[in-house]
Amino acid sequence: MSIIAKHTAAPRGGKKSFARHILLSVALACAGTGALAQDWPSAPVKLIIPFPPGGGTDILSRIVANRLAEANRWTIVAENRGGAGGTIGVGEAARAAPNGQTLLMGQKDNMAVAPWLYKKLPYDPVRDFIPVAHVAYTPVVIVTAANSRFRNLGDVINEARRAPGSITYGSPGNGTTIHLAGEALGGAAGIKLVHVPYKGSSPALVDAMAGTVDLALSSVPSAISQIKAGKLRALAVTSAARSTSLPEVPTVAESGYKGFDVSTWYGLFAPAGTPKEVVARVNSEVNRLLAAPDMQKAIHEQGAEPRAMTPEKFSGLLQADYRDAKDIVKRAGVTME
Fold first, then answer.
1. Domains present along the chain, CATH in parentheses
2. Which is the most buried residue in 21, 31, 104, 280, by most CB within 10 A?
3. DSSP 100-147
4. Each residue of 109-134: pLDDT tens digit?
């Protein structure tokens, strides 16, 4: 049993057919469980992580990979393939052979939001993937340097109103849910924040600590260690309720913007055509792990909230977020090449 670390456009099927196609994909993948082939996995399982090392997706991916490897005596090769808001790594996963030997840790950004941002994508989230197992969700946290002049979200908003366009915020990339959370905050508060995109959360947080950008918006898993170390000050979280991991940090809604709620999720996907037995097996194993207190603790410690789902329920979440993303992207006026 082992885990090996290696760092190294609109859906072509049409947006209107999203729900019909994804339900068909899940049904074909999960109808009947059958007996698993005795030799699966016949080789190390590759887990593609479409963001750089150190970010929220990377951290949660490695927690899941380690536990799956330990529990099942599997060898899992974790490979970081960052860039373009996660779409480069997702595209690589889409091209993988559907033999059960490749999994992807996808998230809301690249599976539900990206199709509305990019005129061309190297993958079709409907046609090319099967939702396998939801892992966790997390709010976005708004942070600033520990020595920043901003003591709370109200300070940021007041300054932005006094000097429009003067406050910068870093995100893990253009078009990510985290970027759109910043756009949504600006819209709710009637202010203009200047977006600075990075290739992942880690470099954005480093620049926030250095004061190169005024703020960083990040998943809680990516930022929590620096918050607890006193290097970053958390101003607010974007979910409807406070984060279990940061209970002292108020929500944006509590800061005066009732109804504000933006969060992201993480889950395993497989290339379309992956044997239904593999999908059922991985879903069962992930859900079993998520029920274990030690696994829940490990995920909570990283600032995320574990949540198990069937593949069918996971596909329903994906459909709902896909529909909602259309309006959010349109309001933000964001497009990507």
1. 2-136+265-332 (3.40.190.150), 139-237 (3.40.190.10)
2. 104
3. SSEEEEEEHIIIIIHHHHBSS-SS-TTTSEEEEEEEEEEEEEEEEETT
4. 889 998 998 888 889 888 899 999 99
